[in-house]
Amino acid sequence: xxxxxxxxxxxxxxxxxxxxxxxxxxxxxxxxxxxxxxxxxxxxxxxxxxxxxxxxxxxxxxxxxxxxxxxxxxxxxxxxxxxxxxxxxxxxxxxxxxxxxxxxxxxxxxxxxxxxxxxxxxxxxxxxxxxxxxxxxxxxxxxxxxxxxxxxxxxxxxxxxxxxxxxxxxxxxxxxxxxxxxxxxxxxxxxxxxxxxxxxxxxxxxxxxxxxxxxxxxxxxxxxxxxxxxxxxxxxxxxxxxxxxxxxxxxxxx
Length: 254
What we know:
By secondary structure, this protein is of the alpha/beta class.
C-alpha cells in the first residue's frame, strides 16, 4: 500500500503571487505546494481523495495511473476544481456523503462530468464502503466558510484493514464524530495556519490537540497555507511527537 501527497497547499497554493514571506521566497522545493489531492494505491485499486485546481499539473508531474475511485471531502473549488481534467479518467466511481454530493451537483460540476464521460458514475454513500481489504468510512467534520457562520458539508475518510488504519481529514475546525478516529496508525489532518482565526481550519495548534486526544502512532499535516514554512514547522511539530509536515510528492508506504 502506498500513500502519496499530490498537493499539500491551501486555497492559494504556495508561493502566493506578490508575497515576499519566508515560504513564498524559499528555495526549498518543499515550500512549493499545489492545491490538495491525495492518492491511495492499494494492491489492485487506485483511489484519489479530492481533485483540486492543480489536478492537471499533478497528472502530468506524477504520471498518474487510471483512478478507480474518487472520494470528495467537500465542494470548495480548491478541492473539486480539477473536475474537467478528471473527466478524462475513463471508467470510475466518484463518491461522497449525500450532503457533499448535493453541494457538488449544485455547482454543476456533476452535470458536466457525466455529460463528458458517461462511464463515470457519481454516487452518494453514508455507511461503510469496502474496497479490497479496507473498510472506508466517512467522518463528519465542521468546516465553516471563511469568516462566516455558514456550515459547509465536509467529511474526512477513515481507512481500516486488519493490518493498518489511517484517516485523511480535509478542511475542518472540529471533528464531529471523534469516536471514528480511535486506534489509528496514521492521522493526516488540516494544518492550514498556525492557529484557527476564523478561517474554518483547526490549524497546527488544533491539529496538535487532535494528536494529544486521538493518540495516533503518526500524524502528518497537509493543506498548508504560505504561513507555514516547511523547516520551521517541521522542527516545531517534531518537538511534540511523531509528527511531520507534508510536501508535494511525499510518499508513505506500508
